[in-house]
Design brief:
The protein has 128 residues and is an alpha+beta fold. Helices cover 41% and strands 21% of the residues. The longest helix is centred in the C-terminal third of the chain and has 25 residues. The chain is flat, with a radius of gyration of 16 Å.
Length: 128
């Protein structure tokens, strides 16, 4: 299967996983707060002449890696990774249903973990 992603690549792109954040950040994929001490990905890039710094929480990184490992052609963009992941899984399921058994379940488990983390943080902040 050929893979063609229909987007313009950045002029430059640097991704690094930060171990134990020093300050609070917000995930650009799921909008949940990332607290000090959490691991996350920070990407610096330049798209269409605009410099951007994007952050991704560990739960969203897990989802992205799961889909990359499970779907031969996973084209995604920062800020829409969840929609892109779901679309890639749907496409794979409709093309090769027998080959991707359990793909929706694995994706769903990771998505629920992501939502639970957001809920836990919101509850903890409401108590303070």
């Amino acid at each position: 299967m050929d893979c063609y992603c229909d987007y313009d690549p950045p002029e430059f792109y640097n991704a690094q996983v930060i171990k134990a954040a020093r300050k609070r950040h917000k995930c650009d994929e799921c909008d949940r707060p990332m607290l000090p001490g959490e691991n996350y990905e920070r990407v610096t890039g330049k798209w269409e002449g605009e410099l951007s710094v994007l952050t991704t929480c560990s739960n969203c990184l897990d989802i992205r890696q799961f889909v990359k490992n499970s779907v031969p052609c996973f084209c995604w963009a920062h800020g829409s990774m969840h929609d892109d992941a779901y679309s890639a899984i749907q496409d794979a399921y409709y093309r090769e249903r027998d080959e991707v058994k359990g793909l929706f379940m694995g994706y769903g488990r990771r998505l629920i973990a992501c939502r639970r983390k957001r809920s836990e943080i919101a509850k903890a902040e409401a108590r303070t």
